[in-house]
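User: For my dataset I need records formatted as: sequence, then structure tokens, nothing else. Please produce one.
Assistant:
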Amino acid sequence: MNKSNGVLMQYFHWYIPADGSLWKKVSSEAKKLSEMGITSLWLPPVFKGLAGANSVGYDIYDLYDLGEFDQKGSVRTKYGTKDEYLEAVKSAHDYGINIYADIVFNHKAGADYKERVWAQKVDWNNREAELGQPRIIEAWTKFTFPGRIDYDERGNVSEYKYSKFLWDYLHFDGVDWDEKSGENAIFKFEAHGDTWEKMLDSEKGNYDYLMFADIDFGIDEVRQELKDWAKWFIEFTNIDGFRLDAIKHITLEYFIEWLDFVRAETGKELFTVGEYWNPNRLDLLEKYVVESGFRMSLFDAPLQNKFHRASKHGSGFDLRKMFDDTLVAKYPIHSVTLVDNHDTQPLQALEAPVEDWFKPLAYAFILLRQQGYPCVFYPDIYGAEYTDKGKDGNDYIIILNPVKDLPKLLEARKNYAYGKQIDYFDFPTCVGWTRLGNEENPNAMAVVISTGDEGYKDMYVGENFAGKQFVDFLNNRIEKVLINGEGIGRFSVNSRNVSVWIGII
């Protein structure tokens, strides 16, 4: 599924302040975002996590607690309350913006009680390699969700709000902590046999286990509970789609079953993008898209990594090969392209940030071309400042500045990025392309990018523009370009920069 000239925005980053204000900000900014050309927002996990009001959201505790119950030390989440979330969704819809919810199914965290479980310790780097003999461990696997319990006058449980389903060790296939011994290791539960679930590739022997209490999707009642929850969640919140977290750790067969169910039950399209983060294995992303029956899109991790490397190597990176071995080149309709995200930002787990000078160039690559569904990152609009420890254990202050020209690039996509695309990827440090417009949007556009010296491209924009002048929409060049009788103009660009030339019919 593609969104013609739409733009997705990841409306958070890892270090958003834990002041409960984000949902209110969505409501207050919705009109402005719509005017900028943002058509969809990917919001962070709305569910109560292990860290309560300080949880980024990926340490999922209770899928039914959207900031409504006093659990894990707070009622609200890091981002606000249930009512504020519902209002944010409504406000976005009022301005034509879709909301995609971040769904975390791989694991649960913050169990209310521990249980004695027979388990087999396995190797961190090869989960098929067993270490020692099976033994009884104490695992945090019993979830009772006390905040959702209503009691009668005698103190007896009268109702579990929203769902009666309680989780215990029979619903999980492993943990990474034994409370009995105090050992941090991966323990595979013996209850459902001695194998992990089937994964798409053999990374770490089998990458079913990622963190916390790993959900076992081989259990029928687990599969049904997550379907029932999704139907409730969609109807309760009126969201429009999903970002699926950590999908390479979950059996693909379940997501096929789950998506078919929720789409059929709700009658909604439910655009879905999955996080299968592997920048070096395009073949695995391709395989996932195909084997999912094209039910979902994926983030183009290989392209993001190319942006990262290009920003590091400058003129040493061959721009002609920017889209080689990328998902957007192979499956453009099922590729969500991005420059950075909460995992690649500085000091995070998959750290691979794009340097400031290259970000306008990278955004031009994803916003002004036909292929892909572009995703804009929150700090690139608003900026960010935070402190955290680096891999060396030292504290670092990180300042992320708003990206120069990003609002103008969004405006250019909204108003001018239409019609046939002609590529001029013929020089390693200077490339370009043109968009010829269409019947509804007849204006033309020419984009030139340089990572080396000042350069130019002779490019075709159409005979209908003969004798007309083009101007640089970004104001990086002050001259005007006259189009000759064959519809060709010479479009220039400054060193290590981008120019977006616009012709008006």
